[in-house]
Design a protein that fits this description.
The structure is a single chain. Helices cover about 25% and strands about 45% of the residues. It is an alpha+beta fold. The strands form two sheets. Strands 1, 2, 3, 4, 5 and 6 form a six-stranded antiparallel sheet that branches. It is elongated and about 65 Å long.
Length: about 220
Amino acid sequence: MRQKMDPRYKKIFIGLGIAFVVLLAIGLFINPNKSGSGNTNTTSAGAESSTGNETLPWDYKIVEGTVGDLIGADMTILPDNEMLTNDNNYATGDKLWIVQFMSAEMTTRDDKRNDIKLSKWQSIKTYKSKAEAETDLKELKVNLTTDVDLVGVYKTEMDGKFRQFAVVKMPSGHVVKQPIDDARYGKLKDKKQVKVVLEEVHDFANYDLSMAKFRGWAE
């Protein structure tokens, strides 16, 4: 017949088994599997992408220049010696016109207002005539009349003097504030939408990306 285990040894073995299970559980908690780690990284990336920052086209302009030195396939443009690619086979001394571009980094704050940081002017294309440059520019800066949401109107007072303002929501989602006179204040105070003139500035590399800028009232 088998000999019965001493109760003292039986308690020791049970205690060791419980300790092993506890240590195993702690190890799994401290060292999660690879799949869990990947989920953590994905969530972090999603949080970083929702910061409210966006880079939008802001403006274009046409400037005149003169070709300076030719350096390989490039050229310098006087008077600032800016280096550009000589795509149109210009010669030293040739007059040309340049379309320059400015972008805006827009940050939407918690109060729905916007902080805007403008870039420096960047030359993007050269033309042999000003008319050619103006033709392209008409496609990138478009004026239109449309209805936008009217957030509201309000008055301020200082030293007995009053000022009136209207706040409208642009198609891009940001809001703009414009001073208005008493007559317009009376016309707008009960409205939910208002007709305005906008200038749509399109990105030269991605036409669908645009920035709407307030240019006046259409009523």
